[in-house]
From TrEMBL:
Signal peptide: none annotated. InterPro entries: FAM194_C. It comes from the Eukaryota. This is ERIP6 protein. Residues 1-177 form the FAM194 C-terminal domain. It holds the Pfam family FAM194.
Length: 213
C-alpha cells in the first residue's frame, strides 16, 4: 500500500498456489480475501463476515448480515444441487486500492491501484476432479430459492402454452399439447430437491402445485 504496509501475498508450495489480500494495517492485519488454486476462494467484508465464497462447483454472494444474495454454478460443474445457474459478472472493492473481478472460474482477477499505477493478478483456475467423492457436499437451496425455481418453471410453461395457442388457434388442440422435455426434466429436479431438502410439507405441496399449474 502507499503506507508501506503489505497488501497482497502470493505463495506457492508444490502444486498449490495461494493469493492473500490483507487490509491496510502495519500489524495484525485482517485477511480480506484468499484465493486458492484448488478452486476454493473467499472474500470478506470489512467487518469480517463472508462476502463471496467460491468452490469447484460454483459460488455464493452474501450480504453483510449473512443472507444469500445470489448463487451460481460453473459451466460443466460435475455436481450441481439444481438447475444450472449462470454467473453474472461481479465487481467488488475490498478497500480503496484492491478490487476483485469475477467473470468465470478461470477469469478471476485481483487488481491493485495506487499512485496512478496498477497491477493485476489472475487468480482463477479450472479444477479437474478425478474422484467425485472428493467433492464437498453442495450447499442446500433455501425455501425462497426453491419457490423461485418453481415459479420460473411455471412461467416457462405459460410461455410454451402461449406459443402453442398461437400455432394452433383451435382450442381442441390445446389439451393435446405437452410441455417440452426440458421443462419436464426441470420440474422433476425441483421436486427431487424438495424431497431432499428440510422444508415443511405445506411448502412442498405449494411448490408441487406451482410447477403443475
Amino acid at each position: 500500500y502507499p503506507s508501506g504496509n503489505l497488501a497482497i501475498i502470493v505463495a506457492q508450495k508444490k502444486k498449490c498456489r495461494v493469493c492473500i489480500v490483507q487490509e491496510d494495517k502495519p500489524s495484525y492485519a485482517e485477511i480480506q480475501a484468499i484465493f486458492k488454486s484448488d478452486g476454493r476462494s473467499t472474500c470478506y467484508y470489512p467487518n469480517g463476515t463472508v462476502w463471496i465464497y467460491m468452490s469447484i462447483q460454483g459460488g455464493q454472494y452474501l450480504d453483510q448480515a449473512g443472507s444469500r444474495v445470489r448463487r451460481w454454478t460453473w459451466p460443466k460443474s460435475i455436481v450441481s444441487p439444481g438447475p444450472h445457474v449462470p454467473l453474472r459478472p461481479i465487481f467488488i472493492s475490498l478497500n480503496q486500492h484492491v478490487g476483485v473481478r469475477i467473470l468465470g472460474q478461470d477469469k478471476i482477477a485481483v487488481s491493485f491501484l495506487a499512485m496512478g499505477r496498477q497491477a493485476k493478478f489472475n487468480v482463477g483456475t479450472k479444477v479437474q476432479v478425478s474422484n467425485v467423492s472428493q467433492l464437498p457436499p453442495p450447499a442446500p437451496l433455501s425455501e425462497d430459492e426453491l419457490l423461485l425455481l418453481a415459479f420460473r418453471v411455471r412461467i416457462l410453461r405459460l410461455f410454451d402454452r402461449l406459443r402453442g395457442c398461437l400455432n394452433f388457434p383451435s382450442s381442441e388442440q390445446w389439451d393435446k399439447l405437452k410441455p417440452p422435455a426440458y421443462l419436464i426434466t426441470q420440474t422433476l429436479k425441483i421436486l427431487q430437491l424438495c424431497t431432499s431438502s428440510n422444508i415443511s410439507d405445506e411448502l412442498r405441496s405449494s411448490i408441487r402445485a406451482i410447477t403443475h399449474a
